[in-house]
Amino acid sequence: MRGPVSTSPTPSATPDPAPAADAPPSLSPASPLSATPPTNPALPSVSVVIPVLNEERHLAAAVGRVLAQEYGGDLEVVLALGPSRDRTHAVAEALAASDPRVRWVDNPSGRTPDALNAGIAAGRHDVIVRVDGHAELCDGYIATAVAELERVGADNVGGIMDAQGVTDFEKAVACAMRSKIGVGNARFHVGGGAGEADTVYLGVFRRETLTRVGGYDTHFARAQDWELNHRIRSAGGKVWFTPELTVTYRPRGTLRALAQQYLNYGRWRRVVAARHEGTINLRYLAPPAMVVGTTAATLLGLAWRPALAVPAGYLAAITLGGIATSRGEAPAVRARLPLVLATMHWSWGIGFLTSPAALRATDPAPQPGSDGGDLT
């Protein structure tokens, strides 16, 4: 079993400026700013890193849930701010001004892996907690995760992505994202027993592990969590899932945004498969196979009607699956489930099939930013 997380104190200093966009930041901790002494200095100190882009709507709630954590050790929040198109920057500055535990660094590229690496580099502490700008931690999240890191000798601990919507459409997306018919059987989506896992949602890491494996791969605009966890496991590390950790996730609010999200999921999952041999399985091949099979059967059905049984069967499956998945929801939510499921499936499958070869190149050109770093 791995030994306990280091808890050595660090001296006070002014935080260093954010690293240049064209130079990947070092993942060693920066010197700390003076802060309120922790209740229990024996506990590991924690840096919460939040990549932020266009999160005006959710950022205050996300940071508020972090600051409300009842954790006895020292805690800081580092916001890595991209060039948002809304008032996110003003919200972040207000949060930093209102609490000395919150500060921010620039992320000029706006890309999630760059933001994460910049935030980790600016952080001062030995435990790194990744949180997204539209995610809200459950009570006791940090205390439980740090305890699990030490108890099981893990390198990364995470839990459940608990999708919760506000509008009828968002609630339908949340239902789909919590169901096997929507996202497969990954424990971070649908739950399950504690144990080692291929990947987890977000993550609570030992800094030494992130330093050892080189941090987040800046090529991966999406799928950076899965790819990082793969490298941690390949290096002999342990990724640990526990259902006690839940994070409220706010789904996309429009059909177009959902389609773009899942198109990118499929596109970047194929890049992971190309970069890391043996990381693809039937779960990931099901959406592209469905797209090819259903499209071919529909075209064939124009000349041979029995082939139309394939698209009809798919339509029946998502309709019945949507009904089963949305028990207890309002009729307006249940009515949207089939369309939401079809959008997720088809967008993911098309993204996988059309993933540009340039993304899978050894030295690809830099890719544009994305508006979030959700796990795939």
Question: What would you note in describing this structure?
Answer:
The protein has 2 domains: 46-176 and 184-251, Spore Coat Polysaccharide Biosynthesis Protein SpsA, Chain A (Alpha-Beta Complex), CATH 3.90.550.10; 273-359, no CATH class. Strand 2, helix 2 and strand 3 form a beta-alpha-beta unit. The longest helix is centred in the last third of the chain and has 23 residues, at 331-353. It has 13 helices and 9 strands. The model is unreliable at 1-26, 28-35 and 364-376 (pLDDT under 50). The chain has helices at 59-67, 88-98, 112-122, 141-152, 168-177, 180-183, 187-190, 207-213, 224-234, 255-275, 282-301, 309-325, 331-353; strands spanning 46-52, 75-81, 102-106, 127-130, 135-137, 156-163, 195-196, 201-206, 239-249. The chain is α/β, with parallel strands linked by helices and 376 residues long. Strands 1, 2, 3, 4, 5, 6, 7, 8 and 9 form a 9-stranded mixed sheet that branches.
Structural class: alpha/beta
Oligomer: single chain
The residue ranges in which pLDDT falls below 50 over 5 or more consecutive positions are 1-26, 28-35, 364-376
Largest sheet: 9 strands, mixed
Residue-averaged pLDDT, rounded?
88
Q: What's the CATH superfamily of the largest domain, by name?
A: Spore Coat Polysaccharide Biosynthesis Protein SpsA, Chain A
Give a count of the beta strands, DSSP E runs of length 2 or more: 9
Q: What is the overall silhouette?
A: globular
CA radius of gyration? 21 Å
Annotation keywords:
single chain, nine-stranded mixed beta sheet, 13 helices, globular, alpha/beta, 2 domains
